[in-house]
Structure formats: C-alpha cells, structure tokens
Amino acid sequence: MAxxxxxxxxxxxxxxxxxxAGSPALAQGSNPADQAQPKPESSTEQNSEHQPSWKxxxxxxxxxxxxxxxxxxxxxxxAYHQPRxxxxxxxxxxxxxxxxxGDFDFEYWLVPEFPREGGDTExxxxxxxxxxxxxxxxxDLYAVTHKTGNSGSLGLDQTKVELRWALADWGRLWGNPALxxxxxxxxxxxxxxxxxxxxxxxxxxxxxxGANLVFEHEMGGEQTNSYEWTGGLSYxxxxxxxxxxxxxxxxxxxxxVSRGTYxxxxxxxxxxQVRPLPQAHLDLVALxxxxxxxPRAKAILILGWEL
Length: 307
Fold this sequence. Notes:
Helices cover 10% and strands 47% of the residues. A hairpin with a 5-residue loop joins strand 7 (178-186) and strand 8 (192-204). The chain has a single domain (72-306), classed as Beta Barrel (Porin), CATH 2.40.160. It is mainly β. Residues 24-30, 40-47 and 50-56 have low confidence and may be disordered. The strands form two sheets. Strands 3-4-5-6-7-8-9-10-11-12-13-14 form a twelve-stranded antiparallel barrel. Strands 1-2 form a two-stranded antiparallel sheet. The protein is built from four helices and 14 strands.
C-alpha cells in the first residue's frame, strides 16, 4: 500500500525526534572532550586482581613520637644516636661506650694514692687525647708520669694506647656494650695488656650508670694478673652543669707462681662532676680503701676539654 508523501515526512520526523530524545549527548550537543574522558572504575573492578598477603601494602599508620627528654644532656646526638652525656667522661674508674665520630678531646688526670701503712704517697699524672673514629671506634693515647713521696722525677715513664669499639648504636643492645683493648708500655718494666667489657645506660631521667669487667696481664716478670669490676652511679642535679654520684672498684690480683692466691682491693666513695663551660668538665672522685690490702685512700681529679 502506498504511503502518501506528506504522511511519510511526518512519520520520519517523529522517528528522528524519538532518537534524539533517547540520546542526551546528541540532544544537548556532542563535546569531544567529554567523550575522551575515561569512565571511572568501580571499586569492584579495581580490586578484581588478587594480591598475596606478603605483597599487600599496609594501611597508613600514624606514629606517635616519644616525648622530648627532660634534660638537654639526654638528647640523642651523632651518628650513633647516643645521649649527649655519653660524649664526655662521666666516671673516674669506669668507662662507657664511645665518644661521637669526629670528636677530639683532651684530658689531664691527677691521681694521688695514699698507702695504708706509713708508705710514701704515689702521685700519677696522665695526659690523654681521645679521638672519635667512624664505625663506633674510639682511639685514646696517654702519656703518664709517676712520683713517689718527695723523691723521683715527673719524667715520662709510661705510655698507653687504647682502642674501644661499641657493638651497636646506642639503645640497640642492653647496657650498650663496648669492647676495650689497651697496651701499656712501662719504662724499665714489662709491658701490660688490659681488656675491658664496658656497659652504661640511663636508669631514669637524670640517673645514669656504668660498669666495667676488667682483665689486665703483665707480659713478663711475675706475670701478674688483675681481675676487676668497677661501677658508678651519677645523678644530674642541674642539667649540663653539675652532677653527684658514687663509684666503686673491686680488684683481685695474683702472680704466676701462686695463681688463685689473691691480693684483694676494695675502693668506694663519692664523685662529683662540674661543667663550668659547655666544652669543659671537671671530675673529682674520692675513694676510701676497705681491707688491709687496699690503699688508705685514692683520689682522681680529671680536667677535660673538647677541642
């Protein structure tokens, strides 16, 4: 059946209108930029590829830092993240850890020892240079003089070379252990070798401790062996200004012909450190001897300066 021409045109227009109404993009005008935008993926599509647990990224974690230390001397410094107080000598008889890499210190020691039974007082003086090396190493060099009573001279009669190595950065191991090896050259006497295991840490803010296990051997002569334990406590009264404490030394000594028959020495007394300038420290230790094998008293005065 033939469709009239006018009716055909009306039908075509109606069909075209329906097509435009069903396509908003055509109805509103086509935008090439809109057509170029990719369709966002749904969360289901994004997670469709499974990952094993050992490859999965962890969720973001908020880390809450530790509070700042109460004292400036307990702030962490240097390559080994050690407290500032460990960069200076804290005790007379006891060593701890190592000084920071690149540090260079000078110390003068005055050590009078007073015998128990009417002998002459022996005075020792030490001149020490400390160098902080890489890889948690420290090198110390000593020049030492001795004088007994009113006789003798203050000439150099002893030299020491000391190397110590901390086993880990501060806080990684209990007690922050360090190994210590020292060679002692003595004028007109056999040389000595000394080894130590050093410990030190903070008990609480302001309260610090140190302890050493020591073995010293005479390389000739009577081949004297010395076995020691030293310890110290220090309490900071005023930050980086002064601190008080106590130290002790226990020593057992024997010789080759009578190993196991010991001469015992026990020393105990108070200590004081004063920091008149940021680069300087003054230490004073007054030790009393306990027992007939111990000296009546021993004093240690140390003046240190960081260069």
